[in-house]
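A reminder before we start the practical. When you read a complex entry, don't treat the lines as separate problems. The point of joint prediction is that each chain is placed relative to the others, so the output describes one connected object in space. Small molecules and nucleic acid strands, if listed, are placed in the same frame. In the example below there are two entries. Take a minute to note the order of the lines before looking further.
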Amino acid sequence: MNMTVLALLAALAAPAAHAVEYRTVLPKQSTIHFEFRQMGVPVKGGFKRFTTEMMFDPAKPEAARAQIEIDLASIDAGSPEADDESAGRLWFNRSAYPKALFVSSQIRALGNNRYEMRGTLMLKGRSREMVLPVTYTPGKNAATFDGGFVLKRLDFGIGEGMWADVATVANEVQVKFRIATTGN
Amino acid sequence: MSTVMRYSTPAIVFHWLVAFLIFAGFPLGLYMVDLPLSPDKLKLYSYHKWIGITVLMLAAIRVTWRLTRKPPPLPDSVAAWQRRASVVVHGLLYLLMIVIPLSGWLMSSAKGFQTVWFGVLPLPDLIEKNRELGDLLAGVHKALNFTLLALVILHVGAALKHHFIERQPFLQRMGWGRKERT
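Here is the predicted structure of the whole assembly.
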């Protein structure tokens, strides 16, 4: 018996009034952007390649989970020079740590389609507990999950040595993400 | 016997202020571009931009001042062609004092970095981030600066020639000396 048949049986076994469950991510409509200050000047960037695995049922938010894996080589750090620099040992040390990984641990409904997602972010060999606010926007067939949080780069050793000076490059990095999904 | 005709005190102050900033900003620009990326490089870029925007502001004041007042007349010893050349060179110097900082500001926007004067006053990005346009403007900025360098050499050279070779009290026109008679 193959996986498709198993999935079909599982679907049939589910209650008839089961709400839409979002698990198919639309990568082209999903984004991760960030913004930080350099000499007091806001600089925008982002990651072009990341994979998201998630499962969300608005009827059972506490059962939801998400995992996001970011290919750090897909960075736009604001300029080609900064893209190159970010690969180095002082920044992401990408040859040793090519990916960033976020794994959710707990999701709590705050009402009004707002949720609080707890989880662990693994970046440059360090793990930190994070609490991310997420807003769910239902659509006809697709739904989006938008969130934003402030990441302190020095918590992960991003920008060490001469770059640890936060007067030049701020410690706070405003991260904004949007995950677009379709229900099934 | 000729009276030293000085520029007005504000004109003299603005002249030397802008001259000082250009003499600081130009070599700083040449030096910083080839540095490997570092916090120091980011600082120098910011200082260069702050200097440039300050020049732009002072130049705007200078142009207004110059257009609403008559500069002191040139000594009779200055030939007619030199008078005409002087008008052209001064016009170009004023133009470049405006256009060079403007090209730098636009370049910075095109490269995706807003200019924030002294880290306090954000200047609007007049153009969108665009890598090709940024590279093009970098070339324009550089070419304009070397044009300025040539004109400044001409400007200083002419003043020195009038002063030391033709023995006219020329440098006093832009100086703080007493209004001596020669």
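Discuss with your neighbour: Chain B is about 65% helix and 0% strand. What might explain this?
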